[in-house]
Amino acid sequence: MERPTRPVLQIALWTAAAAGALLLGLTAVGSIGSDLAGTQTQPLSAEQVDARLAQQAATAAPPAPAPVATTAPASAPPAVVQAGTAGNVLVRCDGATPRIVSVNPAQGWEREDDKDIGPAEVVFDGDDVPDVRVTLSCAGGVPTGRVATVPED
């Protein structure tokens, strides 16, 4: 009767490989705290930290002066113009000219895209209700809107 030596040999080799991998892993973890030469890095005490910070502050160059703004101030932030229950329009003023940033119809409404509508107007189209027209303008750099209902054709 033959002995099953092959499975015993495989188990022994697997155990040796696992032990080698474990030893390699422990060595790698142990060397994390040391540099390439193998010396250990020691943490600094609070006094040592304070002394090094004071030394750095003494040798540091004075901070550069803050840059002076030479450009014109930015335009005012956009403002929300309410269109009643139809939604709202986000508008920014470029001088006296209103610029539409975004149109946000409420649920059940949509923006009507009509070529006859001017660049400073938005019309909200609702189902079975009169349309809502928002005419935009700028007064002193602040966007405003006039809201009116438009009867169905």
Mean pLDDT: 79
The count of strands amounts to 7
Q: Into which percentage range does the β-strand content fall? A: 25-35%
Question: Helix content range of the residues, please?
Answer: 25-40%
Q: What is the end-to-end distance?
A: 104 Å
How many alpha or pi helices?
2
The ordered string of helix (H) and strand (E) elements is: HHEEEEEEE
Structural class: alpha+beta
Radius of gyration: 37 Å
Q: Could you walk me through the main structural features you see in this protein, from its secondary elements to its overall organization?
A:
The chain has 153 residues and is an alpha+beta fold. The protein is built from two helices and seven strands; from the N terminus they run ααβββββββ. The N and C termini lie far apart (104 Å). The relative contact order is 0.10.
